[in-house]
Amino acid sequence: MINIVLFGKPGAGKGTQAEFLKEKYHLTHISTGDVFRYNIKNNTDLGIEAKSYMDKGELVPDAVTIKMLQDEVEKNPGTKGFLFDGFPRTLAQAEALEAFLATKGWSITATIALEADDEILVQRLLERGKTSGRPDDQDEDKIRNRYEEYNEKTAPLIEYYQAKNLFRPVDGIGSVAEITERLSKVIDNL
What we know:
Layout lengths: L1 E6 L6 H12 L2 E4 H10 L3 H10 L7 H13 L6 E5 L5 H12 L7 E6 L2 H15 L7 H15 L1 H8 L3 E5 L4 H13 L2
């Protein structure tokens, strides 16, 4: 079983790349963004709670995110592996994911980070916000707040996964095909 964490700031291209990778490697794609939107759209208790944070441009608390993710994993018992997109974002989430996967006899195979400059990503998100309808992609201050939270809470994961020899950085600038090729090379060498 291959379990990959696809890592990167909002707008780095995780969702776009996940679509290609899930097909190529027959993985179950779990996007925290999609899981959040599903729960919000369906007014679940977890969705209502998550929305209150997202509307302020803040990261959703670990306990809410972890519960949503565990529910999604449980829906896919026969998978060949998971592609976690946007999770974990904190050390507590990383530890919770490891502990949860261990209960299934699974582990993380690699953490692959799409790396890109903040200014390029801000412009990507503002452009996406014109068509996505997502309020958190239409306000530059909220976008920059998301990056500040990312740098504060998520960046420590780099050291965490480096210490476990699971961290693989990939240049996230270029055409979709070029980035997909870079990611495939990393995965093929795991």
